[in-house]
Structure formats: structure tokens, C-alpha cells
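Severity: low
Component: inverse-folding endpoint
Summary: output formatting inconsistent between runs
Steps to reproduce: submit the following C-alpha cells with default settings.
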């Protein structure tokens, strides 16, 4: 990576404005997986140890441009305080405006200020220049350590670099180097497992992925949209109607790439989105009217496990089902167990996928656990991510 990093700066007396990805899975105010927070600590500690005051900013979820208590970063500030014992962690209730500015100016070297969710302002995702400039006013030097959000060209990940010197943090540097090395010349067979809920976001990278891998295993919400594209009635399942045409085109075109695409043959369906809903296993052609697919079924899992068992390199992003609800976790945990047994390189990325692998107790069995899901997939496409492109080049 030909970008300046935190090592290239004299931090004494400087205000470091650090973009992290603290978009952690939550249940109410409880953080269910702290991987992304732990992953950013080396950069924060380094800045504090080198004489800086540290202003930390992140998004959480998708509040769509309006303040919403459900997506507040306040619980994350409390957690950060717990992780950084001995350091004072302040919290600002808005990421811009007079209170944030005053808090940033009052910050002492060795102290931390976490700003409220950037996405409470619609300008963040629009990469609005005035908003980027308002954020930039809070610090002297900008650090991007948010690998998980590096595929977004937003005000805090891209636009802001026009107003401040911009360097990479340790996590950003590590992710790019580890993923680049692991995937430069992958040992084959190379399999990709794709699931999760961000269908329209991720469907566009599949064509490129298919040109790289030998097998593409699709599950989770992503599979529902593909099954709908094949004409199956999916009941009340999560299907992204806008992505169905793309799914069709992908399936029509993929044969030419030589990549085998596996879709579920059976599903675990439920009559409600709830752990105590009525549920059954059915063929993909038999989803009952009004029911929803919340996991891949046992036959599909067995096929996916066999395919993963043959592979020498596996990349996985996106849970196979709603693993947060115990009755629908088996597809995801089963895939995690299969990856843990692979004699080769295994990379798991994504806030929720990593949370699942942690819950399964298998994170240490993976070659690399990445904080980026969508970011990892776009990184694989080979183009420089907007959050990296914006950083200052090394001299
Ligand atoms: N069949 C499904 N229906 C609805 N949601 C699903 C389904 N399968 C997986 N999900 C959801 O997908 C979410 C994770 O998707 P995503 O954010 O794309 O993955 P990651 O964070 O690993 O990149 C999880 O919260 C999970 O509950
Ligand atoms: O959680 C994230 O991505 P992921 O779900 O693909 O792992 C990142 O924080 C990006 O969030 P976004 O997809 O709402 O821009
Ligand atoms: Mg996610």
C-alpha cells in the first residue's frame, strides 16, 4: 500500500481525527461482537501513546440520515471506556456542530472523544463537501482505520481527505496487506461462500468473483433473491425485488466463466421472524405461502460442507441464515465448522459473519478474520477502495 500511515506523522500535541468501523452487531444496547472495536485499539493506543488527543468517528447501522436512539454510539463509548481503562473517553451527542467542536478543542493529549453516529446526517452518505469540511474542523490530521467501510465513498471516508492530511491506521494497513497476499495467487480449488442480507449491495461483485473462484456457494438472504430469479415462490422471505434481474443475468452469464454456482436445494422456513415461530424444512420449490426462509436446509448444508471440504482456499462473507435466532443458526455454524477443517487458506469477513464465527468458537481456526464484508468483496475486485484512494500517497 503506497499510502502514508500513522507511523509517518509526529503526533505530539496533535488532534487525530480517526474514522473507525464501530458498526458492531448489537442486541438492544448490548454489543454482541466486539471484534471491530478490538481491531481498532492498536491505532488508538498508538496515537494516545505518541502525544495525540484522539477523536473517533463511526457509523452504526443504517439510520438513513436522521437521529435514532436505536443507532446511538453511546453504548460503544461506554464499551470503549472499559477497553481503554485509565484513559478518559468522552462522548459528543452530535458528530458536528458547536458542542462537538468545543469538546474536540477541549480534549487533552491522551484523551478520547467518540462522536455520535455519522449517519444521523444524510450528508455523510452523500459525501457532502460542507459536511466533510465540518468534520475536518474537529482535527488536525485524519486517520482512516475503517477497513469495513473503505468501499464507501462517504464524507468521513473519502471527502474529508480533501481538507486534512490523511493517513492509514494499522488495521487498514494490515487488512489490505493480509488479504492481498492471501488472495494474490490462491491455491485451488478456490471457493467463495456468499450470504447475508445486503443483497443489492453485494450482487454486483458476484460476476467478478465468479471469474476468480472455482465454486460459488450462495446462501442466506442472497440465495432467496436468486431462488426468486429462478421462479420459485419465496413467500415472505427477504427477497430484494430490484436485484432479481441482476440475479437472472448473473445466472445466464456465469456458465461461460467455468465457475460452478451452488444454490440451496432446501430451506428452513418459519411462519414468523422469531425464535419461537413454527418452522419446518422444505424443498426450495415448496416454501408455504406467507412463510419465510430463515436458513439453508440440511441437504444444502451437506453439499456446501462437501464443497468447502475439497477447497484449498475459501473466502466467506454473509451468514447462511438468521443465525442470531438459535433455531436458524445451523447453516451458518455448519459452514463455519467446515471452514475450520479446511487444509488451506480460509478468510471470513463481515461484521455479522465474524460475529457468527466468534459465537461458534471457531475464529482462531481461520487463516484471517476480516473486519470487512462488502469491503473485502470489493477489495477482491482489485480496484483501490475509495477510503484508501483518498489517503495521502507516500513520498
Ligand atoms: N434468509 C435470511 N433472511 C433474512 N436475513 C438473513 C437471512 N440470512 C442471513 N440474514 C441476515 O444477514 C445479516 C448479515 O448480512 P450482511 O451484513 O450482509 O453480512 P456481513 O455483516 O457478514 O457482511 C445477518 O444479520 C442475518 O440475520
Ligand atoms: O457492516 C458493514 O459491512 P458488512 O455488513 O458487509 O460487514 C460496514 O460497516 C459497512 O456498512 P454499510 O454496508 O451500511 O455501508
Ligand atoms: Mg453486516
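Observed output (run 2 of 3):
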Amino acid at each position: 500500500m503506497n499510502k502514508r500511515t500513522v507511523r509517518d506523522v509526529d503526533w505530539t500535541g496533535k488532534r487525530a481525527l480517526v474514522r473507525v468501523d464501530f458498526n458492531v452487531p448489537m442486541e438492544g444496547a448490548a454489543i454482541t461482537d466486539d471484534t471491530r472495536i478490538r481491531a481498532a485499539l492498536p491505532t488508538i493506543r498508538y496515537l494516545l501513546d505518541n502525544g495525540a488527543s484522539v477523536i473517533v468517528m463511526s457509523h452504526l447501522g443504517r439510520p438513513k440520515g436522521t437521529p435514532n436512539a436505536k443507532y446511538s454510539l453511546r453504548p460503544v463509548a461506554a464499551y470503549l471506556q472499559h477497553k481503554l481503562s485509565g484513559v478518559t473517553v468522552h462522548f459528543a451527542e452530535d458528530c458536528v456542530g458547536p458542542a462537538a467542536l468545543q469538546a474536540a478543542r477541549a480534549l487533552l493529549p491522551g484523551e478520547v472523544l467518540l462522536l455520535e453516529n455519522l449517519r444521523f446526517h444524510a450528508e455523510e452518505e452523500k459525501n457532502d463537501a460542507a459536511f466533510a469540511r465540518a468534520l475536518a474542523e474537529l482535527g488536525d490530521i485524519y486517520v482512516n482505520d475503517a477497513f469495513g467501510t473503505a468501499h464507501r465513498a462517504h464524507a468521513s471516508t473519502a471527502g474529508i481527505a480533501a481538507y486534512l492530511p490523511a493517513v492509514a491506521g494499522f488495521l487498514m494497513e494490515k487488512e489490505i496487506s493480509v488479504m492481498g497476499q492471501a488472495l494474490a495467487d490462491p491455491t485451488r480449488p478456490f471457493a467463495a461462500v456468499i450470504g447475508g442480507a445486503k443483497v443489492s449491495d453485494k450482487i454486483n461483485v458476484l460476476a467478478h468473483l465468479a471469474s476468480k473462484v472455482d465454486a460459488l456457494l450462495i446462501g442466506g438472504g442472497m440465495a432467496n433473491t436468486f431462488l426468486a430469479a429462478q421462479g420459485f415462490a419465496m413467500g415472505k422471505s427477504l427477497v430484494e425485488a430490484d436485484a432479481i434481474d441482476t440475479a437472472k443475468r448473473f445466472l445466464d452469464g456465469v456458465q461461460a466463466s467455468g465457475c460452478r454456482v451452488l444454490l440451496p436445494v432446501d430451506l428452513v422456513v418459519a411462519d414468523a421472524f422469531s425464535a419461537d415461530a413454527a418452522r419446518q424444512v422444505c424443498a426450495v420449490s415448496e416454501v408455504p405461502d406467507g412463510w419465510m426462509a430463515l436458513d439453508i436446509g440440511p441437504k444444502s448444508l451437506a453439499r456446501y460442507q462437501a464443497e468447502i471440504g475439497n477447497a484449498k482456499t475459501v473466502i466467506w462473507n454473509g451468514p447462511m441464515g438468521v443465525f442470531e435466532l438459535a433455531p436458524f443458526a445451523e447453516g451458518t455454524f455448519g459452514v463455519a465448522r467446515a471452514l475450520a477443517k479446511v487444509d488451506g487458506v480460509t478468510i471470513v469477513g463481515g461484521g455479522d459473519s465474524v460475529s457468527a464465527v466468534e459465537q461458534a468458537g471457531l475464529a482462531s481456526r481461520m487463516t484471517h478474520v476480516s473486519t470487512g464484508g462488502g469491503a473485502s468483496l470489493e477489495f477482491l475486485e482489485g480496484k483501490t477502495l475509495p477510503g484508501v484512494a483518498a489517503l495521502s500517497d507516500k513520498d
